[in-house]
Amino acid sequence: MARVVVDAQAARAIGKGAMIVFKKGVVRVEGEIKPGDIVEVYTRGGKFLGKGFANPHSNIMVRIVTKEKDVEINKDLFRKRIRKANEYRKKVLRYTNVYRMVYGEADYLPGLIVDRFNDIASLQISSAGMERFKLDVAEAIMEVEPEIETVFEKNTGRSRRREGLPEIERVLLGKEKYRTIIEEGRAKFIVDMRGQKTGFFLDQRENRLALEKWVRPGDRVLDVFTYTGGFAIHAAIAGAEEVIAIDKSPRAIETAKENAKLNGVEDRIKFIVGSAFEEMEKLQKRGEKFDIVILDPPAFVQHEKDLKAGLRAYFNVNFAGLNLVKDGGILVTCSCSQHVDLQMFKDMIIAAGAKAGKFLKMLEPYRTQAPDHPILMASKDTEYLKCLFLYVENMR
Question: What residues does the PUA domain cover (predicted)?
Answer without folding.
Answer: 2-87
